[in-house]
Amino acid sequence: MGILNLTPDSFFEGSRVKLEEAALLQKATQMVEEGVDIFDIGGYSTRPGASEVSEDEECQRTVWAVSLIKEKFPEKWISIDTFRAKVAKEAVHAGADIVNDIAAGELDSAMIPTVGQLNVPYIAMHMRGNPQTMQNLTTYEDILKEMLLFFHKKNQECIAAGIRDIILDPGFGFAKTLEQNYWILKNLSYFKNISRPILVGLSRKSMIYKKLGVNAENSLNGTTALHMVSLISGAQVLRVHDVLEAKQTIELYKQVYH
């Protein structure tokens, strides 16, 4: 899953795409050449402390991009990265195949019922609070147990709403400390209890660059190392900034383990 951020303020500058057709197609074409399977298009930066974006502006940033990429690359899947039901609905009508929700329905009560009506797969991510408050909500008694209960609850909600394909995302960096992120990664297979595919999104995140004493720009090597750990631990989808390197990691993983 390759990240296309139509935002001016997402944490990794290399993932930002200008709101212009030529710039978007250039980036998308590069990703296709590198072997992308799913485009993840987002118009709301969810980095800690990111500024608020109105629903209408989020739609304006993303819906045209979904439509354009679907037209140019009809064989590729498109995921809309949003926690708002309205944006999800408009994007799916424009050609998106998957809804990727960082809030798992917690920030918009209409989201899960809407996805059920749209009849598309749903990625439910674990987070507390919202992007503005999540860094203050990192106290857990037993983080793995609490996350597993959260996913059980979400799984049942989604099934009740008619969603058949549910993917779980542990939400690395969302209401979690650096140590908690690594504990979750070490125990990723714990979430296989729910028998749903697991998506991992840790590409170039602060859990890598702070640990290594570098910045987001210099964290590709660390990202690749943790992608291999994720695959060995049971991840089925990698959400990445660097498609080529992730595909190479998957190829080598398959050579050893399949």
UniProtKB/TrEMBL annotation:
Keywords (A to Z) from UniProt: Folate biosynthesis, Magnesium, Metal-binding, Transferase
InterPro entries, alphabetized: DHP_synth-like, DHP_synth_dom, Dihydropteroate_synth-like_sf, Pterin-binding_dom
GO annotation (BP), single: folic acid biosynthetic process
Cofactor(s) listed: Mg(2+)
GO molecular function: dihydropteroate synthase activity; metal ion binding
PROSITE patterns per record: PTERIN_BINDING
Enzyme Commission code: 2.5.1.15
Broad enzyme group: transferase
Pathway: Cofactor biosynthesis; tetrahydrofolate biosynthesis; 7,8-dihydrofolate from 2-amino-4-hydroxy-6-hydroxymethyl-7,8-dihydropteridine diphosphate and 4-aminobenzoate: step 1/2
Pfam families per the UniProt record, alphabetical: Pterin_bind
GO cellular component: cytosol
Protein name, entry field: dihydropteroate synthase
Gene name of the record: folP
